[in-house]
Amino acid sequence: MDTTSSTPPNRGTWSSKIGFVMAAAGSAVGLGNIWKFPYTAGENGGGAFVSIYLLFVIVIGFSVMLTEFAVGRKTGLSAVGAFKTTDRRWTFVGILGVLSGLLIMGFYPVVGGWAIAYIYKVSTGLLSQPDAIGDSFSGFIANPLQPLFWMGLYLFFNILVVMRGVSGGIEKAGKVLMPLLFIILIIVSIKGLMLPGAMAGLEFLFKPDFSKIDSSVVLAALGQAFFSLSLGMGCMLTYGSYLRKQENLVQTTAMVTAMDTSVALLAGIAMFPAMFAFGMEPSAGPGLVFVVVPQLFAEMGEIGLVLAILFFIGLSVAALTSSVSLLEVVVAYLIDEKGFSRITAVLTASGVMALLCILASLSIGGFGPTLFHTGAFDIFDLLTDKIFLAIGGMLVCLFAGWRLDRSELKKEITNDGKVSFPLFNVWYMLIKYIIPVAIAIVAIAGVKAGFDSNKGEIMILGLIIIGLCGIFSKKL
Ligand code: PHE
């Protein structure tokens, strides 16, 4: 733990640069890359979605991440404090981030729990009946009780890591486990690519058919970029607040973005060729990774069993390093703004998250309350992925571009002129004008298109909640 920095007394700083990059990459790389990216790409037409997603990652994702790191480090405070100390009128952006963290943690641990359950299921004979793998998954997630047990276990691991504080828990978890995951994914991809007929999968993933693009595909790509890079909710901002003054923000941003995107693409390469080789539907939905990967390995005998176990360990670990960062946003808020001790903050936040997760998990089997015919799991996902993160990202850009001083930002990003960033002016134009306008257009068109698939009402609800955050934020 570095004690020389000027962050508030009960917070830590990252003990090394590589530790920070790994922890930020650990936050970014998670279920978003390995579970969400493949099925979202599959549902949205493959190559066309992937190319828009890549464009958004490079232009919007990179710029927003740099903005979050800069604002976080400049203020040395977490999501809410960073805005509040600068200008109380902007506090709601931080509050919206904390709310997004809570809501994402209202479904993320459910899927994290599935991943842990699959370590157990694969080890105890799931692969011996390849034909039953699909039904076994749908039966499992629709069961009211079983997934709750695994979700509880998953949340418990989160609590352990976050209790130990920044450099103790999060950093160590990231450093050891991320490289392991990367290696596993490469092995899985090579295996998949060797199957006969695999090339059709690669073509689906990388050959864009632009006639498939409509506004809901574009909004899905934008949401995916934000979700996958952990942006738009103050997470990278909070991580940036722990970052030391001498680190190079531009380089760090580039590294984290590159790592996150390569894992997503790798997950796609691991799954689509195998699916096409097996004659499965690319639009199979959220069960994709839990059905395709075990089926793939079931064909490979003993080695397949070992690889499948390693894969689900990797998936659980990747999920954990992400959800730990989500929990940390809420915890840092409670510590910095509400004066909680770390232990009380962790227990309070995870208690609320556990309740939301129970609703989300039950909703998959058709139990529990619905709103506009949508269950809790889908509501939390839609609100955050389609609305809060993108609008949150837009607001962070507007805050940096219009409320903060250009020269101060330049000083922060270039470490007082010590680091060169030739694209500073381009970045500044992007965050001040282009990105906010682009996000507004995509969001409006996406909400309109959402009404065709009964998602529009929930999205409008999201916009209303953002408005309410604006009105009531002074009380928080
Ligand atoms: N980026 C994480 C993932 O891909 C999810 C996440 C979103 C984490 C937002 C933090 C903040 O799984």
- What would you call the structural class? mainly alpha
The helix/strand series, from N terminus to C terminus, equals: HHHHHHHHHHHHHHHHEEHHHH
Low-pLDDT runs:
1-9
What is the fourth-level CATH superfamily? Amino acid/polyamine transporter I
The major beta sheet can be summarized as: 2 strands, antiparallel
Number of strands: 2
Mean pLDDT: 90
Biggest sheet, strands in spatial order? 1-2
Q: With helices defined by DSSP (H or I, 4 residues minimum), what is the helix count?
A: 20
Q: Strand fraction band?
A: under 5%
CATH names the topology as: Amino acid/polyamine transporter I
Q: What is the domain tally?
A: 1
Tell me the helix content: over 70%
C-alpha Rg, in Å?
21 Å
Overall body shape: globular
The N- and C-terminal alpha carbons lie at a distance of 31 Å
Bound molecule types: phenylalanine
CATH structural class = Mainly Alpha
Q: What is the second-level CATH architecture?
A: Up-down Bundle
Subcellular location: Membrane
Protein name: Transporter
Keywords: Membrane, Symport, Transmembrane, Transmembrane helix, Transport
GO cellular component, one term: membrane
Q: Can you describe this structure in just a few lines?
A:
By secondary structure, this protein is mainly alpha-helical.
